[in-house]
Amino acid sequence: MKVQTNRLILKTLDLDLIEAAARRDIRAIEAMGYKTNGEWPGTDFFEALSYFQELLIKNNGTRGFDSWIIVAKDTQEIVGGIGFLGEPDQDGRIEIGFATNESHRRKGYCFEAAQKLIEWAIKHNEVQIITARCESVNISSRNVLLKLGFQLDHKDEELLYWKYQMKK
After folding, report:
1. 8 A C-beta contact, residue 3 and residue 117
2. Dihedral over alpha carbons 112, 36, 43, 108 (to 10 degrees)
3. What is the model's pTM?
4. Nearest 5°: phi and psi at 29?
5. Using H for helix, E for strand and C for coil, what is the string for 5-38?
6. pLDDT tens readout for residues 10-56
7. How far apart are the C-alpha atoms of 48 and 85, rounded to whole Å?
């Protein structure tokens, strides 16, 4: 599954890419047509690879409510990751998360990718609520979420919890 913006390609992960990323096998990733400088996958995303692998196996593929890579169109370099933590729950709630590689931060990639993926999600009738969370000290993520139209829902000692105002 793939969607595009002016500068980016967002593509769902498949099992081959997950396995190459889990091995941090740059040659295998590049053999799939992507460039990488070794920053992807970042620590948080690396730790979640087994979760996304299980989702793909359990669901016999993807419907898009899992993990996507963010690829720069001009270079085919994987510049980050974005996605959802699974299918909408019984209330139509999904959680979005995103991150860019350190060398590609402050270029607007997270905002551009998240905006496109939110547009994609809203087209699915089962999606009623989009949430997000970030560390309270992560100013960049906070700014992206605010710019996207998320509103702070609540917080605890470590995390801020956000809710997207749906415009269906």
Report:
1. yes
2. -20
3. 0.92
4. -65, -45
5. CCCEEEEECCHHHHHHHHCCCHHHHHHCCCECCC
6. 999 999 999 999 999 999 999 999 999 888 888 888 888 999 999 99
7. 10
